[in-house]
Write a structure and sequence with these properties.
21% helix; 157 residues; single chain; Thiol Ester Dehydrase, Chain A; 7 strands; alpha+beta; 3 helices; seven-stranded mixed sheet
Length: 157
């Protein structure tokens, strides 16, 4: 399982003196970008391919408070991927130094063509690297319907 360790800084803490919600998102993004960089998805390669990852949603579940002074580890596992690599779902778990699970997030993402700003497929070389990521026990092949399972659609005013 891919993991990244983080120190909780003063700027990561909210008025309740525990890890602020947006810091969880920052740590997960950093973990994903570290994995991508180490797997050939770095900014230079993505720029050549004109690709960018986008988050479609992130669902957080909090189990224990996180305080400054002790490091945490954030994991990254593949929870799902579409047959063409267009959509992907990650699971992130937050652990303390004893290995206790502090929080979990399920994140759904997709790839966009940065010129057209439309969803696009992942090139085979990168698709193979995504599929090689450690998978969750409930891993599944994603369909377009999975991206709308929460029935959230835009409603213009």
């Amino acid at each position: 399982m891919y993991t990244k360790e983080f120190e909780i800084r003063w700027s990561d803490v909210d008025a309740n003196r525990h890890l602020r919600n947006s810091a969880y998102i920052d740590f997960m993004s950093h973990t994903r970008m570290s994995y991508f960089l180490e797997s050939g998805f770095g900014q230079v390669n993505l720029a050549k391919l004109n690709l960018g990852p986008v988050a479609l949603y992130e669902h957080m579940y909090y189990f224990r408070e996180v305080f400054p002074g002790k490091p945490i580890r954030v994991s990254l596992q593949l929870k799902g991927i579409s047959n063409d690599g267009r959509f992907f779902q990650f699971s992130h778990n937050f652990y303390d130094i004893q290995g206790r699970n502090l929080a979990r997030c399920e994140m759904l993402g997709a790839w966009i063509d940065l010129s057209t700003r439309k969803l696009t497929y992942l090139p085979e070389e990168l698709f193979a690297k995504m599929k090689a990521l450690d998978k969750t026990d409930d891993f599944k092949i994603l369909t377009k319907e999975d991206t709308r399972k929460h029935s959230q659609f835009p409603k213009d005013i």
